Amino acid sequence: MPTQTVLADLTTLPVPADVLALDARDPLAHKRDEFLLPDGVIYLDGNSLGALSRRVVQRVRHVTEEEWGRALIGSWTLGAQEGRDWMALPDRVAAKIARLIGAQPDEVAVGDSTSVNTFKVLAAALGVAAPERRVLLTDADNFPTDLYVAQGLTALLGGGYELRRVPADEVAAHLRPDVAAVLLTQVDYRTGRCLDLAAISAQARAAGVLTIWDLAHSAGAFPVDLNGAGADFAVGCGYKYLNGGPGAPAFLFAARRWHAAAPVALSGWMGHADPFEMARDYVPAPGARRFVTGTPMVLSLSALDAALDAFADVDLHALRVKSLALTDMFMALLDPVAERLALTLVTPREPAQRGSQVSYRHPQAREVMADLIAAGLVGDFRTPDILRFGFTPLYHSFADVYRAARGVQAMLEARA
Amino acid sequence: MPTQTVLADLTTLPVPADVLALDARDPLAHKRDEFLLPDGVIYLDGNSLGALSRRVVQRVRHVTEEEWGRALIGSWTLGAQEGRDWMALPDRVAAKIARLIGAQPDEVAVGDSTSVNTFKVLAAALGVAAPERRVLLTDADNFPTDLYVAQGLTALLGGGYELRRVPADEVAAHLRPDVAAVLLTQVDYRTGRCLDLAAISAQARAAGVLTIWDLAHSAGAFPVDLNGAGADFAVGCGYKYLNGGPGAPAFLFAARRWHAAAPVALSGWMGHADPFEMARDYVPAPGARRFVTGTPMVLSLSALDAALDAFADVDLHALRVKSLALTDMFMALLDPVAERLALTLVTPREPAQRGSQVSYRHPQAREVMADLIAAGLVGDFRTPDILRFGFTPLYHSFADVYRAARGVQAMLEARA
């Protein structure tokens, strides 16, 4: 059977009453209408690129055609009283993100890519660590750009700085007296395994090691409590669960206790205490604003700003409850057929250890995912053999999950 | 006379026949219709934020509502054959910019802010300089973010690296054996003074010093020939004369001869030879693409991409001829009244030493510019006492220049 016809009417596949009942009592069900999802597609890749919301469409048109096109340079300061000026845009977005990650607004800086922010917090952390601690510890299977940025920074610094990559389950055993900081991604991008941020932060603190958390697959997916955990630094991504658009500006977190001492390696004029004073010497702005470097990319940042408003009326614990229910259902539907279809679950079943995705190994994962995508069931392939399905509680229904699981099953049965 | 009425009908002020004749034979006159300029305003601040073009409006709508909203994650690779995929977007924009600055496409990397790009090229230059050369030389009055970024990098590196700031006219005398590189902005943002890029690059090369040019007020304003001058590195801004929108992605130039040896300090996955291989070790992409760091901000980068198409049919030498004619006319109209109105010209009269702006000192510059802007004549104030007027040959007419000069005169006479 040609793969393109296996899932021909997947988005209209009848859904059992008990699944429809879950949607009927979903307290987040109304959020779906805020998003513009393409017809005929079940999109389970919001952990790679979040969907477009209606308010972003309006905002991008407004910022382009009115704020830039008509008000031009004036928009940098216009509306400062009401908080609409471009100069303060990074701070406004920071405040919205702070709520999602358990931070104070002045502990968050928004702008640049996750990679560049990782460089900033790594340099800040190494700068406040005791001089005899020159090892940057990380999970050897961390997301590649975290590894690459750490390689670039330690090479640049020289002077005995070293990136030490160890297996994920050996990180705790490596919190030794020569370690300055540990860089970990809370949710593994392949498996969806979620680390205990509070416990590991406490372990590290007890060992005198600073924590740097990559929240790429955490922020906006479930509540994060950086300050509750006593975390030191963090970074995160604007274009996954925050739905800020392709390559949206990223963010960093720096705990208040480090603001005075941490060096600002990328010290640009937008992190200066008074950018238009045009002073000859860099004087950092108060708080994490100092980590904003150059002129913010206003179009992309405005899209993220508008996208974040989707969270304004959302209880993050309700978001987590729904996320776990979605991923639980997906696994439960595939459990009975998984072995027969050569699917090996790699996502932890324990809720506390799971992000907002479900991943399986499959020997033909690359080809299977290509066929699924061609048929309108969009997940992600990750090397070497992973089928990844991301669930976004803001815009996914339980009916979506049911249809997706049945679609995966049908596709694999057709290939068998 | 209230200042708001002095210039009430400036944009309809009658223009002499000889000025209209210049517009009638301007080979670039047709370009103005490509831009959306607000009514009732003469906008002489394109050197701070370039104007919006019609093609950018269309492109931003398309990338947001179609490429992101409908094609979603697929847009990263869709249309790769025809060069429309997001993955190659930085390279496509780089090729368009390369033509404007005398570079090969593979010598330009696009993305991040000018500040972040400055960090990248400074780190690259210091990394290829002889180890005994640890001084980074710059003009003490360089644009602040250049100074701040250089401060941040030299502090980060430690090890005897030093930022040496000298008066602009003493730079040549300081090209000494301990100097690794010289960082200069070709066109001074206050005065519009344009340095002889070729001559200074040759002097530096003869002294064994690498050149790093900030082209913020050069690229798109007049032809630049980096390779003709044998320049080593450069950075530039996307939101001034390139009209890429507020905070548009910036660019860097790295001469081919340095690609193999120059370290990539900000080594992110989008500069990896194969980003989706998810390899554990950073392997740089060929050419300057290695200097692309994180995921590109696609909305902002698409706006810049579309904006650059305004240059496709433009002879850059014709652009320069018109630019000089516009600034010549502005000065000539104000010359007879300048002394009486306390205007002191600070822009060089010599064409080769002038960018695409005209600046005057005035004892009440801040208040005068506020009044001009309120009346619809938008220039810029720069500390401590500079009135700055930027001229963009793509969308300014000689009639604009005439009216602007008369407007400045009328405003100052009304205040006298």
From TrEMBL, chains A, B:
The organism's place on the tree of life at top rank: Bacteria
N6-(pyridoxal phosphate)lysine carried by residues: 240
Pathway assignment: Amino-acid degradation; L-kynurenine degradation; L-alanine and anthranilate from L-kynurenine: step 1/1; Cofactor biosynthesis; NAD(+) biosynthesis; quinolinate from L-kynurenine: step 2/3
GO MF annotation, one: kynureninase activity
Keywords: Hydrolase, Pyridine nucleotide biosynthesis, Pyridoxal phosphate
One Pfam family in the UniProt entry: KYNU_C
Enzyme Commission code(s) on record: 3.7.1.3
Binding residue positions for pyridoxal 5'-phosphate: 114-115, 143-146, 185, 214, 217, 239, 269, 295
Catalytic activity as recorded in UniProt: L-kynurenine + H2O = anthranilate + L-alanine + H(+); 3-hydroxy-L-kynurenine + H2O = 3-hydroxyanthranilate + L-alanine + H(+)
Essential cofactor(s): pyridoxal 5'-phosphate
Family membership: Belongs to the kynureninase family.
Summary of subunit composition and partner proteins: Homodimer.
Role: Catalyzes the cleavage of L-kynurenine (L-Kyn) and L-3-hydroxykynurenine (L-3OHKyn) into anthranilic acid (AA) and 3-hydroxyanthranilic acid (3-OHAA), respectively.
Name of the molecule in the record: Kynureninase
